Amino acid sequence: MKKLLALKLFLFLLLPGGMAQTKKGEIQSGRASFYSDAFHGRRTASGERFDKRAMTAAHRWLPFGTVVKVTNPANGKSVYVRINDRGPHRRNRILDLSRAAAQKIGIKGGAQPVIIQTVYPGKPSPAERPDTMAVSLLADEPTTLDAGMSYLPTGKACRPKGYALQVASYYSPASALYDAASLRSAGIRDVYVQVPCGEGSGAEQHYRVVVGQYKSRAHALAQQASLAKMGYASFLQAHLQ
Length: 241
Hints:
Alpha-Beta Plaits; 2 domains; disordered N terminus
């Protein structure tokens, strides 16, 4: 069973843009940059012409048409953008903004940490999922993660201790595992998916992506600056007991 789950996750990660989907309210964090003016007028991956004045952005796997709220934690400024392209193609970056969108939140050069919240989820395009065999395997047995447990990016249950820094929150277990695996591939080793209990009556289960096993709150908070330099905004969470 564990080998089957690992195989499905592997196939899932091979798909262009992933099988990961998103729901309203889900949060990611990472480093954002903006397009060079040289791309103005060129075709994006969605087929649209790129317009540096439009409120649009590129993301590696969010479905085209997804609207996200992008916040610069350094100044609290936010902007709403629509995903219409694929990228960024540089390591440790999560979003490429149009120049106009970047200016609205004070990103003037290089890449800066941002927090991304899904406002309107787009619909995945079949054209981005050509591996029908992998899709079929995943559809036969969806990934499930038990409440009250923590998991490695491979889907294996574990019991990390102490404190961690949360960098994302999803309503989809597959999306959480996808993001955790992406963080691992970016060079962050201690990555886990938490599935908290006690969501409350009628509340939808969510899945936290957290980093680290810190012995104390002070130790965890001291690591926030290092994580921010890598492009990830974060906040404190205790590991599940």
